[in-house]
Structure formats: structure tokens, C-alpha cells
Amino acid sequence: MPSADVIREAVARYLKAVADGTAGDIAACYAEDATLEDPVGSEPRRGRAAIREFYAAIETSRRHTELIALRVAAGSAAFHFLVRTELPDQTIDVAPIDVMTFDEDGRITSMRAFWNPDDMAVRRHGQDG
Fold this sequence. Notes:
The protein is α+β, with helices and mostly antiparallel strands.
């Protein structure tokens, strides 16, 4: 089981990759056979290639992440964070709670993101109104 410090570092690396990295950088935070369920209730994605494809949707946007709270226990982490995605016509804020498990190397083996569309705050740009 990875130490709490390894898990904290893995969460920080993941949040940095979501903010600044490519889809490949984010997927590299995951184990090769990891699963991703984002949001919870959606069809889980399995494997690094499917995870890379999932994150490709945000790759060209400007993003910012901010950790709000982190709890680590027994090889797992639960954390609340803000992710702001800036698109040409709108900015989207969502603050999911992610639950992750990790391997000995600090790679994510499973991720479940708790949020739904009602949790999103959307600000449109360039519209009168």
C-alpha cells in the first residue's frame, strides 16, 4: 500500500496535470489498467488509452485547479477541488469530489468523480443580456 505522502504527491501531480497538462500527461497519472467513472453513474472507462481519450475533450482549453480538501486513508484519497475550464464563449466551474485508489507507485488505479450537471456554474462571455 502506498504511503500517505505518496498519495498526497499523486493527487498534487494529478491536479497539476489537469490544470496544465495534455490528455497524455493526465492519463500518465493512471495505472495502465485503471478505471475512471466521471461522473459517477456514467459508463466507466478502462485502461490508459480510454482515459486519455476522455481527457482529450479539455486538452485545448485553459484550465485552473484548486484543492479544497483532501483526506487520505488505506491507499485511497477523497478530495474536493475546483476545476475552472475557460472556453472562448464561456467559463465553467465545477467542484467535484473525487475518490481514488492508488498502486505502490502512486498511480491511480480507480477514480470516481462525484458531481452532476446541477453542480456546474457556467458564465457566458460576450453576450448582451
